[in-house]
Amino acid sequence: MSFTYDELKTAIQDYAENDETSFVNNLPVFIRQAEERILKNVQLSLFRKNVSGNMTQANQYLACPSDFLAPFSLSFTDANSNKVFLEFKDTDFVQSFNPNPATTGNPRYYAVFDVDNFIVGPTPDAARAVELHYFYRPASLTAGAGSGTTWLSENAQMAMLYGSLVEAYIYMKGEQDVMAHYEKRFAEAMTGMKMLGENKEVTDDYRTGMLVRPKQ
Fold first, then answer.
1. What is the span of the domain harbouring residue 164?
2. Which residue in 84, 109, 181, 192 has its CB near the most CB atoms, within 10 A?
3. Over the range 36-50, which residues count as b (16 or more CB within 10 Å of their CB) and which as e?
4. Is residue 159 part of a domain?
5. How many Å apart are CA 99 and CA 107, to the nearest integer?
6. What is the number of structural domains in the chain?
7. Per-residue pLDDT in tens (0 to 9) along the chain, 216 residues
8. Residues 75 and 22 in one domain
9. φ, ψ dihedrals at 18, nearest 5°
10. Does residue 49 fall inside a structural domain?
């Protein structure tokens, strides 16, 4: 089972038994809030992305992608065609390490300088090809057509439905026992997603063996 955008909106209305105009108008908000909770609480490969770019000679700043949230790694290709990974540090550390931006060399460190830029140190002594592996915000289901789907709507249906219902019942000031039930179902769905994102996606049985749970 998977949800299209229209199907998820219909399911929320059916569960809530509410077709009042302001409620319907806020359905996209409920869905985006559910997506936000998933994004901030589960590590999934869905939320990882790689991009290539270039450092500019004598420029200590490197632009962040527009959908950037947090870094996983930053590397550049040196003059010998070797990939070199920079160490992630605090902005103050990078600026203290290289207090004079005119001092150039192969960059060793990087930091998030502001919402639009990284800072690297030392300042690059030549233009370098770079690769950034980062945590990003995927497009929301609500950004597409009614018949559209996303990875979450196809593979995390319970989390999307019950997360949206929690937000819908908060909006409706609904019964606490019903809201608690939806929150419980959402938490169960999140547990399954954590198993996928933080165990199954980052291990394999050949190298680590099968996960063995204690007997009840």
1. 5-44+140-202
2. 109
3. ebbbeebebebbebe
4. yes
5. 14
6. 2
7. 689 999 999 999 999 999 999 999 999 999 999 999 999 898 888 889 999 999 999 999 999 999 999 999 999 999 999 999 999 999 999 999 999 999 999 999 999 999 999 999 999 999 999 999 999 999 999 999 999 999 999 999 999 999 999 999 999 998 999 999 999 999 999 998 888 766 544 444 445 555 555 555
8. no
9. -145, 120
10. no
